[in-house]
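2024-03-11 09:14:02 INFO worker-7 job=invfold-0412 stage=load source=structure_tokens
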């Protein structure tokens, strides 16, 4: 049974593709005529944890090893505090300062607080960062899937066996799965997927910490130092500096989720006020991730010392306990499948909102078809041709880029470095100053600008480190030849 639903109402960036026609007297709508939001502090916290605790958590032991106990721990805590503070500032800017109207995306918040030019700059940085993250997640998920096959191969055939594994089939498989998941209409329908992904992030982080802790307790922990890796044979002062720059960037960017904060906040119920609930969700999400980051970074460093691996799970080898390492990699894959959608939805919504305004009478853009898959009305699939074509094309291009650019993680680090400072620090601070009319050279203005400049310097250092790493990767570039 197929029927279509007219969709001529103006769409918000995260609500495009809903296919809901508002009937006269319908009470199931929000203050702007859109469907009532159902998000709570717990669903928002799940979205935050899914976005923040990425597979990058497993590289924190390496980051702490480059900085040492003192600088490593201070850096973890410092960026936790900065991210929590600026996220709270951004939450207060969700509604327009003059009209109190909801803003459905980060770039709209910037437009209504800082003007059109800043809106364009924000959009360019935000979507480049989101698209880069999606391609990077495709690569990272394929690495974990290949690691599972490699681990099983060693277990069955012995540690001396040849177990080279290609990543390409796994990238293609992930792309096929994301083709289906990308048809989830919008952020409001991602709660269950985000909760599952958040649980998985706890799972693989806990496995990594547990294995590292067991290594420390057994007395196999390696040598650590207050200043981290030491200059000597095989490590020059310049190499040490580049590593420290990358470590700063790694830790700073591990906390960022501002590029999707507004979209998450727009899923919350209107009562109590969204900014109050979002601030509490920020505290829950950042506090939770900081605890896991401290455990992964510090316990991992204690276990592996100055030779800490880039991926905590691979530091235990592909051998025993192979089943536990496999479980950790499976959890990474499931988490990244959900995180892919969390980062993709703002991109999907932006294009669909633009198309709805450009061609409001087009049936391809506005009409939806409901396909009942069984007799129950609850089990229906909604098809919109724009959503089907555009999102499928996006997933295919992202998968192809991941296969063509095996060194894309270095490009992603560069995009992350470029996006961290403006999205997480600069725009929230400038909007807060503008909204609250904070005067120049006042104590509060100076404090905010100090945070601004500190994070800018870190971002510049991380950009330099990522460019240096990118230069090394290009020298060994072989398209479609990614193997472990």
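2024-03-11 09:14:09 INFO worker-7 stage=emit residues=484
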């Amino acid at each position: 049974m197929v029927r279509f639903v007219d969709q001529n109402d103006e769409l918000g960036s995260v609500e495009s593709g809903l296919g809901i026609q508002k009937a006269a007297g319908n009470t199931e709508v929000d203050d702007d005529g859109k469907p009532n939001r159902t998000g709570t502090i717990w669903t928002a916290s799940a979205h935050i944890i899914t976005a923040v605790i990425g597979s990058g958590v497993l590289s924190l032991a390496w980051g702490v090893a480059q900085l040492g106990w003192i600088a490593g721990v201070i850096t973890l805590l410092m960026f936790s505090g900065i991210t929590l503070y600026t996220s709270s500032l951004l939450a207060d800017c969700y509604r327009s300062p003059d009209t109190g109207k909801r803003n459905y995306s980060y770039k709209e918040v910037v437009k209504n607080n800082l003007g059109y030019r800043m809106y364009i700059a924000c959009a360019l940085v935000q979507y480049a960062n989101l698209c880069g993250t999606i391609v990077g997640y495709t690569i990272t998920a394929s690495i974990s899937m290949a690691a599972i096959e490699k681990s099983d191969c060693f277990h069955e055939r012995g540690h001396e066996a040849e177990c080279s594994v290609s990543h390409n089939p796994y990238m293609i498989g992930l792309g096929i799965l994301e083709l289906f998941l990308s048809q989830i209409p919008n952020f409001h329908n991602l709660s269950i997927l985000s909760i599952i992904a958040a649980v998985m992030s706890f799972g693989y982080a806990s496995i990594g910490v547990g294995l590292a802790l067991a290594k420390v307790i057994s007395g196999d922990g390696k040598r650590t130092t207050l200043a981290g890796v030491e200059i000597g044979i095989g490590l020059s002062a310049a190499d040490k500096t580049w590593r420290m720059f990358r470590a700063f960037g790694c830790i700073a960017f591990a906390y960022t989720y501002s590029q999707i904060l507004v979209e998450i906040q727009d899923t919350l119920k209107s009562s109590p006020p969204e900014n109050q609930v979002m601030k509490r969700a920020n505290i829950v999400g950042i506090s939770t991730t900081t605890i896991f980051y401290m455990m992964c970074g510090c316990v991992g460093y204690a276990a592996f010392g100055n030779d800490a691996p880039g991926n905590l799970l691979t530091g235990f080898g592909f051998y025993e306990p192979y089943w536990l390492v496999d479980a950790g990699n499976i959890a990474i894959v499931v988490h990244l499948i959900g995180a892919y959608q969390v980062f993709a939805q703002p991109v999907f919504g932006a294009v669909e909102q633009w198309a709805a305004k450009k061609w409001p009478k087009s049936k391809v853009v506005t009409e939806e078809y409901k396909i009942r898959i069984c007799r129950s009305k609850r089990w229906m699939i909604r098809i919109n041709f724009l959503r089907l074509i555009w999102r499928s094309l996006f997933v295919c291009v992202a998968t192809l880029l991941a296969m063509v650019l095996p060194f894309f993680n270095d490009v992603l680090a560069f995009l992350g470095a470029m996006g961290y400072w403006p999205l997480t620090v600069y725009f929230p601070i400038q909007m807060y100053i503008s909204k609250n009319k904070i005067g120049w050279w006042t104590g509060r203005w100076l404090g905010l600008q100090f945070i601004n400049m500190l994070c800018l310097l870190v971002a510049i250092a991380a950009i330099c480190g990522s460019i240096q790493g990118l230069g090394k990767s290009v020298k060994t570039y072989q398209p479609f030849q990614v193997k472990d």
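2024-03-11 09:14:09 INFO worker-7 stage=report msg="Residues 1-26 have pLDDT under 50 and may be disordered."
2024-03-11 09:14:10 INFO worker-7 job finished
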